[in-house]
Amino acid sequence: MRLSHLWSSRLAGPRPWFPHRLLLLGATLALTGAALLVLYLQKRSAEQHRAHTAIVVTQVCEKTVAVLAERLRKRFAGAVFDTIEGIGHPELLAYDLPRAGRFFREGLRLYPYVDRFFVWSDGMPPHLRDEVLFFRPPEQAGPVAISITARDGGAVGALYSQPELGRAVLGLARNLAPVRYPFVVVEQNVDGVLYQVLIHYLWRDGRQKDYFALIGYTVDVERLRDGLFNRVLMSELPQVLNPDPRSPRLDLTVLDEHGRIVHGQPVAPGVPSASSPIDLLFFPSDTLRPWLGSQPERRQWSLVVSAEAPVALATTHTYSLFVAAIGLILIALFFALTLDRQARRLAQMQTDFVANVSHQLKTPLSLLAGAVETLSLGRVRTPDKVDQYVEIIGTQTARLSGLVDQILHFSRVEALGSAYEFELVDVSSLVAEAVSAFRIALPDGVSLRLERGHDVPLVRADAAAIEQVVLNLLENAVKYGPESGEVLVRVGLVKADVAISVRDQGDGIVQTAVPRIFDKFYRGPASSQRRGFGLGLAIVQRIVRAHGGRILVETGVDRGSQFSVLLPVAS
User: pTM to 2 decimals?
Assistant: First the structure.
């Protein structure tokens, strides 16, 4: 009684708070803090990176838009420098139309914003002197006033009449001639179309009292809005916007004087950008200003260069490194929590095992102690009583021996693992012998039936281990079956495996407990009133796995249970 009281007192009282839990809690908090710190540092670093990148991209946009604006200004000046000033006084004084035609044709190719080049000369036939004539390249068809042919007979182009516009331009030139400047630029609305007109006077002498020729060009301002400006930009954009594949991708948006988009798309919010104004004057305004008799109203458009998209929060490479670091921290935290949960589960199982051992050993020890005390005090005087107490001592000693043997066998299985002596075994005969031996200790009211298949093949196994599997399953079937019922044992061939099945007629196992019935020390809800340590099925599973086999369970509440062991046939 003292021994059982001692065990009970050691198991009583509240569960101790182990120091390793404090360490685990500290480790968990430290890992969590480290993860949060990494996230904060990553976010701060990404924001600083984004701000710095936005500044750099903005500076690139500013430089790009300045270069593009300068190139466009030079392009707008090109029609004067390369075409108008290329035609000299001597040529037009000599009425050399082929030379002028070659310059006009090249100018139309280089400067798409020019609508038409025109010319007037006092060398023209008298009936054509009331208007300026416009140049047409040879590849364009239409009416011809004067054909222009080179000395070798090749077609240079033609001059054609557009009376209303031609008379309007000549009228502007005559009205502004008294200012005696070599150039004038005016805007004229002709037939509902607004033209910007540049006129260059060719004077006969330095006193500039009489001109003998006029040359110049017209620009249809509205035509620029309808897509012509895109053609003007095409030769400049690839060289300026994205010259290097490693540089940020840039887009261009052109806005007119009213803020309407002429080219490109609206700039998205948050996108780095820079803008530059550009005067819609299609001549070298700075160079011609001292020689310009008049000029049109300034229309200021805007060039906006922007990045294709907002600056990303962080580069993919940096982001992936931080994600990997956080992932490793979280994995370490997961493993730590899993190990702690398994350690607590094992500790609980060991505690349950000790409690179960104390419960199983308490009864036989108490009976042994009482019998020994009675015999030692000489209280038993008749031979029948002595034999009765001796039988009690023998029965309880055998019971204790069986409990100890079960624990030792489990320890052997845990320690040796695969240390079995494999040989060819006739499983059908082995099961028959085990069932026959088990019948000797079978309780009254319980029947045991064996069904054996024909020509059951041999398996490679340890005969003693397989016999232990059968005996453990039979003991469980009797322990959890009814007091008067049948245990059915079958042996046969199922596909490529030899199957040993044991079915009882008990209450069955609840589904929530099925995944844990093979855990060592586990005892299900229905085991509290039955002796045992929760090692039988754990031993069975380890032996079967060591033989390369499987164990299956078919059970349900009030349907009994069937355990089937499948062993591979020997090859």
Answer: 0.51
> With a cut of 50, which residues of the chain have pLDDT below it?
1-17, 314
According to DSSP, residue 133 is labeled E
**Structure tokens belonging to residue 260:** 């309407």
pLDDT for position 458 = 93
- Residue 130 belongs to some domain of the structure: yes
Entry field: residues in the chain: 571
* Other Cβ atoms closer than 10 A to 289: 10
Supply the DSSP symbol for 242: -
Q: What pLDDT, on the 0 to 100 scale, is given for residue 506?
A: 85
Q: Identify each DSSP E strand in 403-496 by its residue range.
A: 423-425, 447-452, 459-461, 486-494
Distance from C-alpha of 522 to C-alpha of 534, rounded to nearest angstrom: 5
Alpha helices by DSSP H, 377-462: 383-416, 427-439
**Does 331 map to a domain?**
no
Strand duo 486-494 + 447-452: pairing: parallel
CATH number at residue 473: 3.30.565.10
Last residue of a domain, one of 171, 206, 227: 227
Beta-carbon contacts of 543 under 8 Å, excluding residues fewer than 6 positions away, are 413, 465, 466, 468, 469
Going by C-beta distance under 8 Å and a sequence separation of 6 or more, which residues neighbour residue 517?
509, 524, 537, 553
DSSP per-residue letters across 148-187: EE-TTS-EEEEEE--HHHHHHHHHHHHHHGGG--SEEEEE
pLDDT, position 84? 92
Residue 80 CB neighbours (<10 A): 23
Does residue 529 form part of some domain? yes
Residues in contact with 137: Cβ distance below 8 Å, sequence separation at least 6, in sequence order: 105, 108, 157
CA 512 to chain centre: 37
Residue 180 lies in a domain: yes
Residue ending a domain, choose from 205, 227, 249: 227
Domain of 169?
A: 78-227
Tokens of 569: 């046939």
Tally of domains in the chain: 2
